[in-house]
Amino acid sequence: MACEQTFFPSVGSSGDDDGDALATLLEQTARTELREDERLREQSLASMRDWIRQNGRIRRCRTDDRFLLRFLRVKKYSIPQACAMLEKYLTVRQTHPRWFARLDPDAPELADILDACCLLPIGRDPTTGRIVILGVVRHFDAQRYNSDTMIRLNMLVVEALLDEEANQIAGFTHIFDNGGMTMAHVTCWTLDNLAGYLRSVINCVPVRLKENHFVSVPTFAAQISKYCLSFASDKLRSRIHCHPTVEQLRATVNPDLLPQEYGGKGPTLKVLNARFREYLASKRTMLLELDTELEIDTKDPREPATHDDAAGGELVADGAVGSFRKLSID
């Protein structure tokens, strides 16, 4: 895999050597964690495209490598599971337009909460290559905005960053600072939104979520946290880490990644956000075109085409899928 230009491209401090180090790290991760190689990648992409063409429900869908690899990589090249997730992803976009439609970073309410530094990338972990996302709950104006806006912000950030192969391969680390959280941040969530987000979005959006760090969670939020964890698999729960204080977070997360406001060696949140807004401007066309490039008929009674129908059996039996029958899912 050729290393493309990425947001937070380096795994070290600066320079071409760091870009080369990231490329090497990504190639190793793709090979060892995803079992990805050129032959498997090309066969799997061809099989997915055939499946999309023969799927009676899918009206429009991106078929470029970068988009389809989101699903293949998160499912470790199990074509049946990648196809199933793509169909779920198209369906959840169609059934929840208030969360997925018009993910425009220049839209007034999204621009407002972006500028408040509620959710933004802060760096790339030098040991894993993962992009690290920081959410600052107290910066979200829960008196003005509700959980629909919060979910749209999350989808905007995820869709933009998933357009990079580095993030598809290495995955994501999330840090949520809950210091200063108020009851308004809890009550702005309806039960329907919370259940819908946890059941639908988390299972349908192709993100390799490797670590979740929660800092300074107030006691009044304990019950909702318990409720959220009830939807998580054992594997996901094992990737959740709670830190009573920012000081304990610094003992776990590389200080080079943390912003200055958190006692780290990184830039300030303001500087990081300005850089992220420039990045989002470069992705704005792609984000808006998702509304016209993706469509599924959710009322179509026909059974969707299976991977066996699309691939003619031989590739599925002997090639990409056959290579992964014995593998566990990440």
Automatic annotation (TrEMBL):
Listed GO MF terms: phosphatidylinositol bisphosphate binding
Gene3D superfamilies linked to this entry: Alpha-tocopherol transfer (1.20.5.1200), CRAL-TRIO lipid binding domain (3.40.525.10), N-terminal domain of phosphatidylinositol transfer protein sec14p (1.10.8.20)
GO cellular component, one term: membrane
InterPro entries in UniProt: CRAL-TRIO_dom (IPR001251), CRAL-TRIO_dom_sf (IPR036865), CRAL/TRIO_N_dom (IPR011074), CRAL/TRIO_N_dom_sf (IPR036273)
SUPFAM superfamilies: CRAL/TRIO domain (SSF52087), CRAL/TRIO N-terminal domain (SSF46938)
PANTHER family: ALPHA-TOCOPHEROL TRANSFER PROTEIN-RELATED, LD40136P
Protein name stated in the entry: CRAL-TRIO domain-containing protein
Source species of the chain: Anopheles atroparvus (European mosquito)
